[in-house]
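Please fill in the sequence for the structure shown.

STRUCTURE ENCODING:
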């Protein structure tokens, strides 16, 4: 079996359709969510608040006024992510309940993808103090990403038997990192050579944001063509009403019977904590590098390129470790490495590129693997007929939509005026997540959910 080829038990056409949606949304996750938009929106907000862009030596201390509240320009992007995730907590479970009742899941997934891609493409217009437009587009993009991933993750169960889920999930994540690496390389060329191309750096960044939206939208046609629809399975019956009303009925029934699946819930709580830490580290890394450590945009993009390159192999490597040691143990080992990473991040010296690159490489090793294996492990614990609904709860803390981590990071920065204590505060999320995950009895949870036991957990 090749490094990226489909396992024998998985339909090759659907394997490629599934894997290439990770490739598609990587444009938004990497370029917008991780590298460019948070520091760019911060600069636009600082220009509006202070009439200039803040620097490490001379930061902008004037707050924006939003609904009568003073908001630091440096915390704006993180508060937007927080609000989007809080809204997602109400919205995504309904999306999941609807998806479990639809025969055309892929249309729902791609519809959200194309809407989010449009929002990302419109980020090209965020300039000249239009920070409010940027905040709105970031909100829409994050909400649509989370909604599409609810449906996408549930499709993993449809196309993959239990023993192959770690492999398929890990390889899909690897495809995402490869796609993100390619698009970031192109963006790095544009941003670095903006003078030679006759562009300002701001224009080069905005064109890169546009490319991320186009990438997401265009490549989403591949899963739309290759994935096939399936009829709903074991859907909880409700008395009457339209699809939305039935979906709320299914959601209410699931919440009512959550105590039937205590292991599933414990895993979900553990994931919520440690994934908040992971997602916050990802989303704040570029802002931390620019505003705290004093690196230029080109250095940040080059570092994320390194992360993407290493993460491609890291995701595949974690998949191999899971085949030998099981997904639960492998995830726990990854969380220990994450704790070391945030401590090293606190100690990083300013404008010293080698330590910064070393930390980026370490992030790459554990980034994709912990997330890919978490997805496949959780899929084993979901009762039939509620796949998308349970993944909607899972997605509330997924890629770029964590809320508690970004809230803590933003508050610590606003209180202390420094990003260093904010980054080290994230270590608590990994500690709590590791302790809770160590208490999850996977075999018992799979049995409670009525699913087939894989060889290793």
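FILLED IN BY: designer on duty
SEQUENCE:
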């Amino acid at each position: 079996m090749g490094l990226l080829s489909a396992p024998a038990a998985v339909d090759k056409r659907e394997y490629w359709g599934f894997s290439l949606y990770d490739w598609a949304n990587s444009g938004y996750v990497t370029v917008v969510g991780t590298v460019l938009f948070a520091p760019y929106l911060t600069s636009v907000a600082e220009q509006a608040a202070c009439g200039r862009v803040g620097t490490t030596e001379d930061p902008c201390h004037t707050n924006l006024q939003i609904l009568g509240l003073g908001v630091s320009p440096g915390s704006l992007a993180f508060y937007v992510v927080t609000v989007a995730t809080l809204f997602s907590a109400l919205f995504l479970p309904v999306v999941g309940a609807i998806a479990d009742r639809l025969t055309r899941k892929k249309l729902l997934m791609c519809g959200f993808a194309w809407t989010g891609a449009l929002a990302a493409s419109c980020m090209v217009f965020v300039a000249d103090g239009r920070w409010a437009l940027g905040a709105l587009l970031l909100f829409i993009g994050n909400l649509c990403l989370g909604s599409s991933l609810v449906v996408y993750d549930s499709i993993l169960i449809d196309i993959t038997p239990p023993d192959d889920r770690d492999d398929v999930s890990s390889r899909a994540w690897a495809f995402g990192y490869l796609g993100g690496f390619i698009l970031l390389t192109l963006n790095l060329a544009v941003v670095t050579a903006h003078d030679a191309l006759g562009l300002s750096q701001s224009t080069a960044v905005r064109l890169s944001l546009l490319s991320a939206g186009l990438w997401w939208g265009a490549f989403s046609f591949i899963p739309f063509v290759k994935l096939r629809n399936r009829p709903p399975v074991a859907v909880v019956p409700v008395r009457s009403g339209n699809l939305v009303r039935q979906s709320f009925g299914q959601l209410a029934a699931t919440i009512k019977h959550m105590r039937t699946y205590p292991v599933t819930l414990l895993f979900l709580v553990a994931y919520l904590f440690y994934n908040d830490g992971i997602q916050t580290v990802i989303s704040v890394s570029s802002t931390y590098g620019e505003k705290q450590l004093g690196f230029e945009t080109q250095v940040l993009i080059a570092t994320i390129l390194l992360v993407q390159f290493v993460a491609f192999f890291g995701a595949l490597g974690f998949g191999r470790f899971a085949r030998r040691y099981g997904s639960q143990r492998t995830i726990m080992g990854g969380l220990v490495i994450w704790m070391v990473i945030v401590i090293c991040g606190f100690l990083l010296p300013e404008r010293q590129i080698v330590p910064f690159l070393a930390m980026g490489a370490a992030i790459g090793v554990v980034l994709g693997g912990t997330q890919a294996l978490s997805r496949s492990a959780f899929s084993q614990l979901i009762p039939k007929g509620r796949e998308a609904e349970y993944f909607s709860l899972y997605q509330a803390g997924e890629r770029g939509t964590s809320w508690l981590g970004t809230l803590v990071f933003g508050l610590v920065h606003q209180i202390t005026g420094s990003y260093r204590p904010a980054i080290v505060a994230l270590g608590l999320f990994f500690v709590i997540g590791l302790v809770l995950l160590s208490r999850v009895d996977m075999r018992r949870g799979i049995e409670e959910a009525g699913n087939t036991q894989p060889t290793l957990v």
